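Page 37, continued from 36.
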């Protein structure tokens, strides 16, 4: 079994992206019997998902897990859904800033992740790593990649599974930005290993609540 794990390059003026700093440490590892391939993707509309699609073609993975930075979040957030909307509050790394534009013209309004979202969260929490289910991946390039990935997999003859995890700022980012939560790199790396293991080992999700009241 093969797993592709992707992480974005830095964006928004940040010198590092915790997603890639963590993901690159997984490259070449074997987790739950699965070989992990780490791929950096650009924080650029359309080019990001094209790089993911190229990685799928190159490595023929059974599981694809994309990882992105979510400054302001306190824990690892496993995304449940990607929506067919690009509405960028800031420009991407090539200055693209679409407003209310579809990611895939004529595509469904949304796709649900096909990884065991709740099981992944439960595994993380059981190992003492803060985690929760997230019901929004935003409307920036992270959501663009999640939706684009799930659309790609929906039209793929191989039954691959895919999803997305957001990670917090690193401590060095939070120290500079002030009043922002953070998580140490070693904790993020360990969390991603646990998440990959849960994704590989559990083709079906747990039937437990992961919802919110509002």
């Amino acid at each position: 079994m093969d797993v592709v794990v992707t992480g974005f390059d830095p964006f928004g003026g940040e010198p590092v992206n915790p997603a890639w700093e963590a993901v690159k440490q997984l490259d070449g590892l074997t987790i739950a019997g699965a070989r992990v391939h780490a791929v950096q993707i650009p924080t650029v509309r359309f080019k990001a998902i094209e790089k993911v699609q190229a990685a799928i073609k190159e490595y023929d993975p059974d599981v694809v897990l994309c990882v992105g930075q979510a400054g302001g979040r306190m824990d690892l957030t496993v995304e449940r859904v990607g929506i067919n909307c690009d509405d960028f509050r800031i420009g991407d790394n090539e200055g693209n800033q679409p407003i209310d534009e579809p990611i895939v013209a004529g595509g469904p309004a949304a796709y649900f992740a096909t990884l065991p979202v709740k099981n992944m969260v439960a595994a993380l929490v059981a190992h003492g790593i803060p985690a929760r289910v997230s019901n929004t991946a935003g409307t920036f390039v992270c959501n663009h990649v999640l939706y684009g990935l799930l659309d790609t997999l929906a039209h793929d003859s191989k039954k691959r599974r895919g999803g997305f995890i957001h990670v917090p700022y690193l401590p060095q980012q939070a120290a500079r930005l002030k009043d922002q939560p953070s998580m140490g790199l070693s904790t993020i790396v360990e969390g991603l290993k646990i998440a990959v293991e849960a994704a590989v080992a559990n083709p079906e999700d747990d039937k437990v609540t992961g919802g919110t009241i509002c």
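The chain has a mean pLDDT of 96. Flag for discussion at group meeting. The first strand starts at residue 2 and ends at 8.
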